[in-house]
Amino acid sequence: MINLIGGVAAFFLAASPLHAGELSAMAGESIDLGGFRGVVHYTDENDGYRVIATIAEGETGIPLRFSATLAEGQSATISVPRKLGEPEQNLEISRSGDKLTVTEVGPVSNQQTGAIAE
User: Fold this and answer.
1) Residue 12: phi, psi to the nearest 5?
2) Cβ atoms of 48 and 70 closer than 8 Å
3) By three-state DSSP, how is residue 10 classified?
4) Are 33 and 45 in contact (CB under 8 A)?
5) pLDDT in tens, the chain (118 residues)
6) How are beta strands 29-33 and 16-17 bridged, if at all?
């Protein structure tokens, strides 16, 4: 477990900071969602871009991994809750053509969420 946390921490330090913009394949970019920090990167797979984000709360939090495969025109949102009464922080990862962009977005309301169709 200590080796896993150490490896994730080293990857966090090696990644460059992300300021809402395009990602390059296999280039880790730092993300910051309030008290949660981590990295996001993607690989170009046969069925789409496989996006992987690893985040942890603070320096001692247990790392969590988020993974999604995005086809043309698709997006995924990572949402981090905050204290009662404060809006959550959201990071949207979207694919348009051969570009993958990461953008910090406002809170997601119940009206904006829906069922996922397969």
Assistant:
1) -60, -45
2) yes
3) helix
4) no
5) 444 444 444 443 334 334 446 666 666 788 888 788 899 999 999 999 999 999 999 888 999 999 999 999 999 999 888 888 888 888 899 999 888 888 887 655 443 443 333 3
6) parallel
Show the beta-strand stretches assigned E in 3-111. 16-17, 21-23, 29-33, 36-45, 48-57, 64-70, 75-80, 89-96, 99-105
d(CA 18, CA 78): 15
Tokens read off for 114: 């829906």
pTM for this structure? 0.66
SS3 28: coil
- Residue given tokens 């994730």 in the structure block: 8
Residue 115 — φ and ψ, nearest 5°?
-70, 150
**How, if at all, do strands 99-105 and 21-23 pair?**
antiparallel
Distance CA 22, CA 64 (A): 23
In the block, which residue shows the tokens 């990644």? Answer: 15
Size of the chain, expressed as the number of residues it contains: 118
